Structures are given as C-alpha cells and as structure tokens.
C-alpha cells in the first residue's frame, strides 16, 4: 500500500469498495485468464450480497472483466457493453464461511475455453486481496508486480523459475507456493521488484512442468 | 510504508510531514520525486473537476436519493450568509458537491474512499481559494493527509463494511485535520494530534446507508466530518495538546469498529437505513 492507494484511485463513483475494488477484481481475473471473457458466473458474499444491486457492483465487475480501467466512464453501461461483446454474465449471492464481508467468487471462461475460479475481497479504498485461485488458497493484492504461474508439483520447476528471474536480474520480493496434493496441480505467486521482459516470460512458459504464466503489472490493475 | 503516526513524526523530524511522505513515496515507488509530486498535483486537478461537476443543481443519482443539494450550500456561501463563515462555508459546499458527484457516478478521487471523498478536497480547495495560497501548498497538504490515511488503513481500516463510517468519514476527517494544520504551518506532531482529535470526535460513527446506497446519510456526513476536521485543526493550532497518544486513538477506532454489529457496517439494515420512512420508500 502506498500514498496513492489513500489519495486515489481516480475512479467512477459511488463506492471504492463496490465499484473501484470490484472493477479491479474483474480486471485481475481477466488478466490471469489471459484472454477475452465469454462467460462469467459471479457470486456475491456478505455485504456485497446485500447491496450489490444499488451500488452497481455488477456493472463494476463486468467492466473489469471487459478490461475497462477503474476510472473508465463506460462502467455505468458495462452490462450493455458486456451484452454487445457477447459476454454471458450472471450474478447471484453466495455464503462463504469466514470470508471478508466484501467477497466475490468468480467462475469465468475465455475464448479458447480456458477457465478460472477466483475468490477475492474488496478491502477498502479500491484495494483488493485475492484469496483463492482454482481452489488453492493464495494471498496477493496486485499492488506489486505479480507473476502467477500455474504448474505441476514436480522437482525443479521452482528452480527453473527463480534461476530464470536471476538471469534477468529481477529480484523476487515475496514468493508463495501452493499445491492441491503431492504431484498435483500447484500455483506459484511471485511479487517482483521489476517487470520481466517477454523473453523471460517465454522461457518460463517453455518449461514442461509449467501450465500457464501470467503477469500483473503493478498499477495496471 | 505502513508507518504509524509516531513513525511518521520521527521520519519528518524538523521538516513538515508532507516532505517525509513525499520522500517516502518516491523511495517506495522508485520514481523521481518530481514525478511523484506531479502525480499528486493531478489528484488535486481531478478534485477540482469533481467539485465543478457536483455543484450542478440538476445533478441526480439513479435512485433520486441524492444530488443537486451542494448548489444550495454554495449559494449561501456566495451570499455571505454561511454561519460557518466563508472558509468553512465554502469547504462544506465543496465537500457536498464532491460527494454528490460520486453518488451520481461521477469521476472522483477516493480520499481515502469514495463514500468519504468530499471532506479532504472540500477543505483543501476552499483553503487554497479563500486564503490565496499556491497549488504547491495544497499539494503538500494532500501528501500529509495521505501519510495519516496510510497509518489508519494499516492499523485499523478504511472500509465501512469493516469499521463503520468512522473508518471512512472518520479517516477522511483525520486526514483533513492534518492537512489543514500543515497548511497553517503546523509541525508533524501537531498534524497527527489534529488527526487524533478528529477521530476521537467521530469514534463509533456507524455505516448505515439507506437502501445500501452511498447516498443518505453518506453525502451529508461529508459535510459534518468537514466541520469536525476544522474544529480539530483549530484546537491543535490554538495550542491544545491531544491527551491520548494518536496511534492509540487509531487502535481504539479498530476496537470500536470490531465491536460494531453487522447491521451497522454497510449492510443497510440499521441506523438511518432502518428508519421506517426510508425502509418504506427505498427497500434495500
């Protein structure tokens, strides 16, 4: 968190938790999916479940999934834009034990059939906290340069990623690794002090154990 | 950058709090200090635009609950009739204008949130105009406000759903009180004590939006919290010392927020939202 998380973001009203934060959640999900969203199932939990309609939280999520920025005036009419883009989007309420009061559960799929299940909370001031990806617990905010790698749990994958970043002289600020079970699917979340070039991302993608690599540029989401 | 108020004061030393915040931001983001300053200046410009948008008398929210009222306060100020005087009279008109623009899906700067977005710009812009100070003074005041805001966000909360309205309008009033003290030439210690006074006077404020919308009472609370910020600043500038450690006031705010029942934390189920006339007219 920095000073411009407090004075900022510049955003469309009426609520930083309900519009800016929700739009940022949508945008983050879209970037992790890595392609245009064609179907989205949106579950609202807690306070979100009670007030999403009046705050236009549905429009904000749709706006983010469409790739609009948090200060894009098109947010008001995002459901119309979603329809025009043939995005099939539906909203309902969910109850998630122990989740933050402003939590969203997203199930989205993209143009090539890629899918993503993401749980995130809008924690105030337009800031977000992603708490689960495809059923694995994670913990990141997108306020740092964040690399998300979905991979197989097998020896050497982490070494390839870290040595590749070392080769590019990119420092790792934080690193988290989660897996479903030994030898199963896993996810690595790396917060980086610099932005990796396309070559670096390409080399990591070539690694046989790696399923997907996505990068969230600090402040683009 | 998750400094406590005490740490901010230590970091500032003999310098203004704004300078400590500015330098810390430049270091944290790895950006040149001029770039950071320009970014804050652009926030000030967006704030000016939002005031302009919100002063339009024809402005109305989708629900019809909010909009078009700031113009009335502004007319009272221009007529020289505001009981609060010209400075505060203008500050509250600007605060309401910004908050109404937000309710009507206008483009605003969260400070620290959208629901509380009117308090800081209202006071800083009115001060800038009424006291004829430069944009530089106003931008510095925003840095000071942001430093206070980050201490509150990291030690307590700035989300109404977590901490009630004290977390939103309370935090904004604290930031604004500090900004006003800085513009008056007060020390970093004085800034954080003014912030503490503002929180103290808004402690326990509930989040009870009618129909769950950021409209009633939210836009009018921006006006009230603006008044609290000015009184907090005046106390400190008069030489009154805050008897409680400012960081402990923030911790008290966190404890009070945690103790608030769910009905009073943005769910639209208690307080003003539960008033029968509102429930009948605007079912959440």
Protein described:
The complex is a heterodimer of chains A (221) and B (284). With 221 residues, chain A is of the alpha+beta class. Chain A folds into 2 domains: 3-133, 2-Layer Sandwich (60s Ribosomal Protein L30, Chain: A); 145-216, Alpha-Beta Plaits (2-Layer Sandwich). Chain A is built from 7 helices and 11 strands. In chain A, strands 3-2-4-5-6-7 form a 6-stranded mixed β-sheet. Chain A has a 4-stranded antiparallel β-sheet with strand order 9-10-8-11, sandwiched between helices. In chain A, α2 (16-33) runs parallel beside α4 and α4 packs across α5. Chain A starts with a helix and ends in a 5-residue tail after the last strand. The model of chain A has no long low-confidence stretch (mean pLDDT 92). By secondary structure, chain B is mainly α. Chain B has one domain. Chain B is built from 13 helices and 1 strand; from the N terminus they run αααααβαααααααα. The mean pLDDT of chain B is 96. Classes of the chains: A alpha+beta (221), B mainly alpha (284). Chains A and B meet through α1, β1, α2 and α3 of A and α2, α3, α5, β1 and α7 of B. β1 of chain A pairs antiparallel with β1 of chain B, so a sheet runs across the interface.
């Amino acid at each position: 968190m920095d000073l411009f998380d407090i004075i900022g973001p510049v955003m469309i009203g009426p609520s930083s938790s309900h519009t800016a934060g929700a739009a940022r959640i949508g945008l983050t999900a879209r970037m992790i999916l890595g392609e245009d969203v064609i179907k989205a199932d949106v579950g609202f939990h807690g306070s979100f479940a009670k007030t999403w309609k009046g705050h236009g939280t549905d429009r904000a999520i749709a706006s983010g999934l469409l790739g609009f920025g948090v200060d894009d005036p098109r947010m008001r009419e995002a459901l119309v834009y979603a329809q025009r883009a043939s995005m099939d989007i539906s909203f309902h309420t969910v109850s998630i034990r122990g989740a933050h009061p402003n939590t969203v559960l997203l199930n989205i799929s993209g143009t090539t059939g890629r899918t993503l299940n993401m749980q995130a909370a809008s924690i105030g001031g337009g800031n977000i906290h992603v708490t689960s990806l495809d059923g694995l617990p994670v913990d990141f905010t997108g306020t740092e340069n964040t690399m998300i790698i979905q991979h197989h749990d097998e020896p050497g994958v982490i070494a390839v990623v870290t040595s590749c970043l070392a080769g590019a002289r990119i420092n790792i600020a934080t690193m988290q690794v989660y897996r479903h079970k030994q030898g199963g699917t896993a996810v690595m979340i790396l917060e980086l002090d610099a932005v990796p070039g396309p070559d670096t991302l390409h080399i990591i993608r070539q690694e046989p154990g790696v399923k997907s690599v996505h990068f969230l540029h600090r402040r683009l989401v | 950058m998750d400094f406590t108020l005490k740490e901010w004061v230590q970091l500032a030393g003999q310098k203004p709090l704004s300078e400590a915040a500015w330098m810390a931001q430049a270091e944290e983001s790895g950006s040149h200090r001029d770039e950071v300053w320009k970014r804050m200046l652009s926030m000030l410009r967006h704030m000016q635009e939002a005031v302009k948008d919100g002063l339009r008398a024809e402005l109305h929210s989708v629900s019809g609950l909010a909009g078009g009222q700031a113009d009335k306060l502004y007319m009272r100020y221009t007529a020289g009739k505001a009981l609060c005087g010209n400075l505060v009279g203008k500050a509250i008109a600007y605060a309401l204008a910004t908050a109404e623009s937000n309710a009507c899906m206008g483009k605003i700067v969260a400070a620290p949130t959208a629901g509380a977005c009117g308090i800081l710009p209202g006071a800083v812009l009115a001060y800038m105009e009424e006291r004829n100070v430069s944009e530089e003074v106003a931008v510095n005041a925003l840095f000071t406000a942001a430093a206070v805001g980050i201490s509150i966000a990291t030690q307590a909360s700035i989300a109404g759903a977590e901490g009630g309205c004290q977390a939103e309008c309370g935090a904004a009033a604290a930031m604004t009180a500090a900004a006003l003290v800085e513009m008056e030439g007060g020390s970093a210690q004085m800034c954080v004590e003014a912030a503490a006074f503002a929180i103290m006077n808004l402690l326990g404020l509930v989040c009870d939006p009618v129909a769950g919308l950021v409209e009633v009472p939210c836009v009018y609370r921006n006006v009230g919290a603006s008044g609290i910020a000015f009184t907090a600043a005046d106390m400190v500038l008069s030489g009154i010392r805050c008897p409680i450690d400012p960081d402990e006031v923030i911790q008290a705010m966190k404890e009070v927020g945690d103790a608030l029942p769910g009905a009073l934390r943005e769910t639209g189920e208690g307080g003003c939202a539960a008033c029968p006339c509102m429930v009948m007219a605007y079912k959440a």
